């Protein structure tokens, strides 16, 4: 599995390695140096989501360097 890129701003895991910007926040600050993986399907009821200030369902990295 190819390393996926993660947005440094909102920690979103990008779907495609071809993407140059984050589809969620539009940032082009991406990194392949990240760890942990969480799927948030119901951000409004998720403690992790509120801690990470996530408002949209999706896949997110827990740690981004
Ligand atoms: Zn983002």
Automatic annotation (TrEMBL):
Biological process, per Gene Ontology: regulation of DNA-templated transcription
One cellular component (GO) term of this entry: DNA-directed RNA polymerase complex
Binding residue positions for Zn(2+): 7, 10, 22, 25
Gene3D superfamilies cross-referenced by the UniProt entry: 2.20.28.90
Residue span(s) of domain Spt4/RpoE2 zinc finger: 4-65
NCBIfam families documented for this protein: RNAP_arch_Epp
PANTHER family: TRANSCRIPTION ELONGATION FACTOR SPT4
Protein name: Transcription elongation factor Spt4
Native species: Halococcus morrhuae DSM 1307
Gene behind this protein: spt4
């Amino acid at each position: 599995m190819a390393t996926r890129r993660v947005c440094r701003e909102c920690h979103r895991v990008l779907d495609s390695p071809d993407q140059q910007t984050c589809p969620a926040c539009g940032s082009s600050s991406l990194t392949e140096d990240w760890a942990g993986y969480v799927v948030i399907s119901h951000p409004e009821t998720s403690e992790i989501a509120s801690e990470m200030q996530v408002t949209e369902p999706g896949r997110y990295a827990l740690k981004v360097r």
